[in-house]
Structures are given as C-alpha cells and as structure tokens.
C-alpha cells in the first residue's frame, strides 16, 4: 500500500513538473490561429507558471486581466497578494493599476499607506503626488511634491510632478 502511494505521489509530482515546464515554454502554439481572448488566456496561464510566487510578476498578470476586461480575475490576484504578508511596493503597484482603470477611490488608500511606510521614497512620493493632482487634489499633491523635493531632487520625481501639471500620468 505504501509503495503504491509513493508511486502515485511520484507520478503526480513528475506530471506536475512536466505540465509546469510545458506551460513555461511560450511558443506560437499558444496564440497563433486563436481568437484574441483565447490567445490571451493561454499566454496568461503560461505567465502564471513563469511568475511563480513573485508578487510584482503576479501584479503584472493581474494588471492585464483587470485592464483587459477580466476585472474579477485581476481583482482576485490583487486581493490574494494584499491578504498575505506583502511589501509596500505591492500596494503602490496595485494602486497604479487602479489609477490606470480610473478608480482613484481604490488607489488612494493604497498610496496613503505607501507614503506612511516609505516617507523617504522621493520618486514614488512625487508620483503619488502626481496622481493626486491628476485627480483634482492639488493641495495634497503639492504637499507630497514638497516632501519629495526635501533633499536633492531626483529626476524622476521632478518629471512626475511636471507631467502632472500637464495632465500626464507618471511613467512606469
């Protein structure tokens, strides 16, 4: 009985490795001749295997789902990441996705936490200020810009602030 369990377990393990390895091999068979949604689904599945447990990688996958019409699936990725121990940068990246989707009300609390936890991150604080300005909150934006420019200013912080005054979102 134990030998059978061991054999079955080993077989399942090897099969899992083979499936995982096959999913990592991205080639034309995943997308050629398929509808755009089918091609996207196949590539997303391959990307999930490639991403493993990486939060930034999983956020990138959630982003294309969220912005590409599979909002519930993308939200599930974000919820899973945020429900476990995660880095503040994960909240920042998810907040950016919400901004891209025009959902400032969902982005703002994530950005506020990021600023509290990373008070010296001038580049991202300026970018968050830019998002505030782009969403009509100039006073908070300029406060964040001032915090960002406290020390020697970083180019990307300056560019984020300048762009916001012209209606341009920070560049990734």
Automatic annotation (TrEMBL):
It comes from the Bacteria. TPR repeats lie at residues 88-121. Keywords: TPR repeat. InterPro entries: TPR-like_helical_dom_sf, TPR_rpt. This is Tetratricopeptide repeat protein. It comes from Dokdonella ginsengisoli. The lineage of its organism: Bacteria, Pseudomonadati, Pseudomonadota, Gammaproteobacteria, Lysobacterales.
